[in-house]
Amino acid sequence: MKLKIDNLTKKYSDKVAVKDFSIEMTEGVYGLLGPNGAGKTTLMRMISDVLNPTSGKILVDNIDKNDLGENYRDLLGYLPQDMGYYKNFTAERFLKYVAALKDIDKKIAKKRIEELLKVVGLIDHKNKKIGKFSGGMKQRLGIAQALLNNPQILILDEPTSGLDPKERIRFRNLISDISKDRIIILSTHIVGDIEYIAKQVILIKDGQLIKASTGDILLKEMQGKVWKVEVEEKDIVKYEERYQVVNIMRKGDKVQLRILTNHKPEENAIDVEANFEDMYMHYFNEKIE
């Protein structure tokens, strides 16, 4: 399957939320990475057919989604940023409710719900009320509801927001496990969510596509731009004024700075390997001088 986003634009009266966004996707995980307010949610809502674009097209195997109609929505699974739950519903009852909304046959839904509760690790909690779930359990239930119709396109908007590190890792592993035969678009501003599972990282800023590439290539392009320097405490401000300082670590009576710059900042600076956090800061904080 191929999902093509072709010059997608969304304008509001006083701003352009997404501008001329184009990309093609096939099976696998795509990490949509950008700061808050970058246009990620607007883009995801247009792909999810929740929001109509001002202009541009969304095509599946070269067929416009508008021509596909209900068949397009049958391909979709969507976990919005703020998923609404009925706190007095049990996990099983909630999934039955969502299955009915999606017009899934009751017999098929019953079997599917049992399978998905096992997949997301909630089978032992199926009769527990959602109001007593942790944040991670709610997100896993959200994944289950998005997978009820066995979608070929799964859209996850900031799915790990508010989760602790353990739940985030568990969630990430779950996404990786179910990504084999479907397109998964995962929107986030947390680099760790996509660093190890995304086949392609899509960088979005001010509603525009900045770059789309593999994580390895993005990091390779950062070579020669990340430096480690040991300085005196009194010199920290001077370096912060001149360079993009992404980390400060105190080591005894010295301070170790991690700096982004195109040129060696001083004689004793050491060129170090870039990580995803460096890449994120490079594209979404301040420009390297």
Could you outline the blueprint of secondary structure elements for this entry?
Elements: E1 3-11, E2 16-25, E3 28-33, H1 40-47, E4 55-60, E5 63-64, H2 65-68, H3 70-74, E6 76-79, H4 91-101, H5 106-119, H6 135-146, E7 153-157, H7 165-177, E8 183-188, E9 200-205, E10 208-213, H8 215-220, E11 226-231, H9 236-242, E12 244-251, E13 254-260, E14 270-271, H10 276-284
Parallel strand pairs: 3-8, 3-9, 6-7, 7-8
Antiparallel strand pairs: 1-2, 1-4, 4-5, 9-10, 11-13, 11-14, 12-13
Helix pairs in contact: 4-5
- The helix-strand sequence is EEEHEEHHEHHHEHEEEHEHEEEH
Give unreliable regions as ranges: none
CATH class of the largest domain: Alpha Beta
Under the CATH scheme, which architecture of the largest domain would be assigned?
3-Layer(aba) Sandwich
Tally of individual helices: 10
CATH superfamily of the largest domain: P-loop containing nucleotide triphosphate hydrolases
> How does the helix and strand content classify structurally?
alpha/beta
Overall tally of domains:
2
Largest sheet: 6 strands, mixed
Bulk shape:
globular
**CATH T-level fold name of the largest domain:** Rossmann fold
Query: What helical percentage do the residues reach?
Result: 25-40%
Q: Give the neighbour order of strands across the main sheet.
A: 6-7-8-3-9-10
Gyration radius, in Å? 22 Å
Number of strand segments: 14
Averaging pLDDT over every residue, what do you get?
Answer: 92
Fraction in beta strands: 25-35%
**Through-space gap between termini:** 42 Å
